[in-house]
Amino acid sequence: MKQALHIFRKDSWHLRYVIAALLAWTTLFAIDSARTPGAFYIESSMTFVIGQLSNWVFPVLWWYLVARVCHAEALPGDRQFWLTRPYGRASLGIAKALFVLVYIVVPFAGAQLFALLVRGLPLLPNLPGLLWEQVIIGAVWIVPAFVIASLTQSLVQFIPSVLLIPVIYGVGTVGNSVTQMDRTALLSGRPFDWIRLSLAIAVAVVVSAVAARMQFASRRTGRSRVVALCGVLAVVVCLASVPWQTAFAIQQWVDPVPQHGLAATLQRPIISAPRTPQMLGQLQFHFDVSGLDPSTPLACHAGELGIRRPGAAEWRSGIRTIQGATELTSARNGCTLWTVLAPLVVEFGDQPLDVRATLYVTVFGDLQSTTIELGSARTVEHAGLCDISRVRGRKPERQATVAACVSAFRLPATLVEFATPGEGSDRFGPRSYSPFPAELWMRPLLAMTRTFAANVDRFDVQTWPVAGHAVLHTSLDNVRLSDFEVRLGR
Predict the structure, then answer these.
(1) What confidence tens digit (pLDDT) does each residue in 173-209 have?
(2) Quick one: how far is CA 451 from the chain centroid?
(3) 3-state secondary structure at position 352
(4) What is the C-alpha separation between 257 and 278, in angstroms, rounded?
(5) DSSP letter at 141?
(6) Does residue 316 have a pLDDT over 90?
(7) Contact 47/35 with Cβ under 8 angstroms?
(8) Can you list the domains of the chain with their CATH numbers?
(9) Per-residue model confidence (pLDDT) at position 65
(10) How far, in Å, CA of 490 to CA of 482, rounded?
(11) Average pLDDT for residues 456-473, to the nearest whole number?
C-alpha cells in the first residue's frame, strides 16, 4: 500500500494542472446545477451554456486524465523505464484506481450532492440515486476509458480507440432501428430503452474487468485487446438486437398489472369517425379496454395484427400498428392505432378475413392530487419538490410565474399533470420506466416546468403512478381490411 500511495502522489504532482482544470469546472458545474428551475427558464443564457458544455467537457477531461495517468506507466511494450523499478502490478493498479476515485468520482459526486442540498431536496431518499449515478457514470465513461488506456501506449493510440464509445452506441442504435423494421417501432420503444442499455453496460463492465485483469496481471496486450474487441462486438449486439417486444415482456415481468380482468376488444370500424387528408392511405384500428375504471389513464404503445382467410390454417402475422409515439389516453377512450398496409388492402381489401390483435399498454394507478401555493414548496410523492414562484427577467415584460417540480437524478416514472383553473393543464408522461433510482444525466436536478402568463398563485400537481404493463389479446372475425381504410367523406 505504501508503494501505491507513492505512485499516487507522483501522478498527482505530475498532472496537477489537468486536475486543477477539472476541479475548477466541477465547482462551476456544482454552482450552476443548484440554480432554481425558474431562473433556468428565464435567464437561460449562461446556465444553458454550462449545462450543455458539461456533457462534453466532463467526458473529455475524464478521458484525458485517465489516459495520462495510465500512460505514465504504460503497460504495453517492453521499453518503459518503470519496468526496471520494483513496482508491483497490484500496487500499480491500486494507485491508478485510487487516482480515478479521488480526482474524478468523489469531486463529481460532491458537486451533485451540493446541488441536491442547496436546492432543498432530502438527502436520505435520494442517496440511492446519488450512489447509482456514480455507478452509471463510472460504467459508461470511466471504466472503458481506463481499460483502453491500459491497452495503449500513448494518446495517439488512445484517442481513436476511445472515440469508439459514442460510435458503438450510434451503430447499436441504428442497428436496433433496422431490426425493428421501421422507425416508429423504435420511437414506441423509447420508454423501455433502459433494458437494452442496461444489458449493454453490464456486458461492457464485465468484459472491461476481464481485459484489465489480464493486462495488469500478465501484460499480455494482444490477448487483452482481443477480449476487448469481443466485448465491443457484444455491446453492439446487445444494443442492436433487443426488440422492443422483448423489452416490453421484461418490463411486464418487472411491473405486472395487478388487475386480472383487464381485456381489450378490437372494434368494428366506425363509419362516422373523422378523417383528415394526412390520414389517407392508412388503416385505423380502435381497441376498447375493459376491466378498469373509465377514468384510469393508459399509455397505448403499439399493437400487432395477424390476418387469415376464414378457415385457413396459417396466419399472416407480424403486421404492426403504431402511432409513432406513445399515446396517453384513458380506459374510457380506449386505444386508437394506425398503420400503412396499402399492399395488403389491395390484396385482401374486399375479402372477409379473421383478425387477431395484440395490444401493448401501460396502466397507471390512482390519482393523487396536491395543491402547491406561492411561496410554499412541498415534496410531492412521485413528482419531486414542487413550488411556484414569480420570476423576473432582465426586462419587465419578461416577468412570469413558473411552476416546477424538481426531482434528482431522473425524471419520475409517473404520469404528472399541472392543472390551474383558467389556465388549462400540462401533462408529462414518463420518459423511462426504469426501476433504477438514477439515469445517465450529468445534471443532478431535473425539472418539469410550466410558465404562466398570468399571475397564478397556486396550482395542482396530479400524479398517477405506474400500476403495471400488460399485453392484451383480442380477435375479430369476418371483417374486411378495406373497412378500416381511412377515406375522406366517411
Answers:
(1) 655 554 444 434 444 457 888 888 899 899 989 998 8
(2) 25
(3) coil
(4) 35
(5) I
(6) no
(7) yes
(8) 177-254 (no CATH), 263-365+469-484 (2.60.40), 368-466 (no CATH)
(9) 93
(10) 12
(11) 88
Residue 125 cell numbers, joined: 431518499
**Dihedral, 101, 30, 377, 411 alpha carbons, nearest 10:** -60
For residue 386, give the amino acid letter.
C
DSSP character string of 98-131: HHHIIIIIHHHHHHHHHHHHHHT--HHHHHHHHH
> In terms of C-beta density within 10 A (0-12 exposed, 13-18 middle, 19 or more buried), how is residue 234 classed?
middle
pLDDT value of position 183: 39
Measure the CA–CA gap between 10 and 243, rounded to whole angstroms. Answer: 49
Single-letter amino acid code for the residue at 135? V
CB neighbourhood size of 301 (10 A): 27
Burial class (CB in 10 A: 0-12, 13-18, 19+), 180: buried
Closest Cα to residue 148, out of 217, 57, 74? 74
Beta bridge partners of 263: 290
Lowest pLDDT segment from 132-136, 365-369, 446-450: 446-450
Distance of CA 490 to the CA centre of its chain: 41
CA separation, residue 149 to residues 132, 183, 336, 458 (Å): 24, 36, 52, 54
The pLDDT tens digits of the residues spanning 240-254 come to 777 778 888 898 898
Q: What is the pTM of this model?
A: 0.82
pLDDT at 154 (0 to 100)? 82
**Amino acid of residue 37:** P
Distances (CA, A) of 171 to 165, 381, 447, 453: 10, 38, 31, 44
CA distance 238 to 203: 8
DSSP 142: I
Return the CA Rg of the chain.
Answer: 27
Query: Cβ-count burial of 366 within 10 angstroms (0-12 exposed, 13-18 middle, 19+ buried)?
Result: exposed
| Phi, psi for 258 (deg, rounded to 5) | -70, -25
